[in-house]
Amino acid sequence: MPVITLNGMPLEAREGQTILEVARAAGVYIPSLCYHPRVGQSGVCRVCAVEVEGARGLIMACITQIWNGMVVRTDTEQVLGARRMIVDSLLSDGEHDCISCEMCGACELQDAAYRLGIEKPSAPRAAGGAPLDLSHPLILRNPNRCIHCYRCIKGCNELVVNEVLDMAYRSQESRVVADQEMPLGRSSCVGCGECVQLCPTGALLEKKALGQGRPWNLERVRSTCPYCGVGCQLYLHVDRARNQVVKVTGVEGAPPNDGMLCVKGRFAYDFPASPRRLTEPLIRKDGAHVPASWEEALDHIASRLRKIRDAHGPDAISGISSSRDNNENSYAAQKFLRAVIGSNNIDNCART
After folding, report:
1. CA–CA dist 75, 214 (Å, integer)
2. How far is CA 260 from CA 148, 223, 266, in A?
3. What is the rounded CA–CA span in Å between residue 100 and residue 308?
4. Are strands 49-52 and 71-73 parallel, antiparallel or unpaired?
5. Among 7, 62, 181, 310, which residue has the fewest nearby CB atoms (within 10 Å)?
């Protein structure tokens, strides 16, 4: 097992690991705006520059694999100066108004600037800018906050494999486009929101979450997506003052989805606060649904099932298990039908 020295600290590493991976595992901060564990190495932003003993100039930690005996320094003046220059350039080149930005407190560019002691960009921001893309019902695109990190492109092309986003044009004219430079809402985007979760700045935002709460005011609650039986893990971002879910993100590094969510899992979270949601059992009496206690409702169901079975036999009763449920509940449903009712008429909606 190779051993490297990081800022004077000997660390064991695995073959094939990069400097950035070893540093993050050891709790040593190295900024990187283009690297993400799920989209892999990029080497685009260059803000992860480090010094390696024996190397000519600074090298990028996100794409450089370690070797036994490597000596790395991440906090020298040369390293910090290079990072400040890169981050300062990104801040000067875009519309990064942290006070009004929805990503304030959760922006990786803002975090890098804070750690490097950059209070404001050294150059004035250029006037004008590209218009906002408001065409998509779920996603807002602000090209003026894009830092060309390629995360959204790699997520769309390599993770989701929908291949909607790509980089077009060259030099100062380069920008992320959807399909043949169409508005996102008119493109072939399926609305999964993978690009929103991967974006390190406020260039891609969820429309429904705009103005609903700052990251530090929301409680993050881990849960399981209710929309199918896969069991995707997600975080509910909850405003406790209103007792309302205002945003959903995937749990990265957790099976089975590793941060990825479908359009329903990521954006269809309004139903818990819906005024049409049932909050108590209802029983039909005299042609109308009236509220009842759980004991009364369960007794009513048991009585009706018993009468039907006694009058028409167990095969007159069937059941359908929801694909939104887990395997254990589906097993309990078929056990109830077969062992208690005596009917083999049990199915699952996922089969149709």
Report:
1. 31
2. 21, 14, 9
3. 63
4. antiparallel
5. 310
Q: Which domain holds residue 336?
A: 282-351
Domain end call among 66, 94, 126: 126
Residue 47's Cα: distance from chain center in Å?
Answer: 23
- 133 is a domain residue: no
In a domain, 46, yes or no: yes
Decide: residue 112, CB within 10 A, 0-12 exposed, 13-18 middle, 19+ buried.
buried
Pairing of strands 139-141, 204-206: antiparallel
CB atoms within 10 A of CB 141: 26
Q: Which residues pair with 290 in a beta bridge?
A: 283
Q: Give the contacts of 229 (CB within 8 A, at least 6 positions apart).
A: 323, 324, 325, 326, 327, 330, 350
What is the pLDDT at residue 127? Answer: 66
What residues contact residue 197 under an 8 Å CB cut-off, 6+ apart?
Answer: 155, 249, 250, 259, 261, 266
Give residue-wise pLDDT tens across range 84-109: 999 999 999 889 988 889 999 999 99
The reply to whether 334 falls in a domain is: yes
Phi-psi label, residue 65: left if phi above 0, alpha if psi -120 to 50, beta otherwise: beta
What are the residues whose beta carbons fall under 8 Å from the beta carbon of 255, sequence distance 6 or more? 233
Residue 113: what are its φ and ψ, rounded to 5°? -65, -40
94 and 56 co-located in one domain: yes
- Position 123 scores a pLDDT of 85
Task: Give the separation between CA 196 and CA 84, rounded to whole angstroms.
Answer: 26
Q: Can you give the three-state secondary structure of 167-206, one letter per residue?
A: EECCHHHCEEEECCCECHHHCCCCCCCHHHHHCCCCCEEE
Dump pLDDT digits (tens) for 288-337.
999 999 999 999 999 999 999 999 999 999 999 887 777 899 899 999 99
Q: Are residues 70 and 91 in the same domain?
A: yes
Q: CB–CB of 167/178 below 8 Å?
A: no
Q: How many residues does the chain have?
A: 352
Would residue 171 count as lying in a domain?
A: no
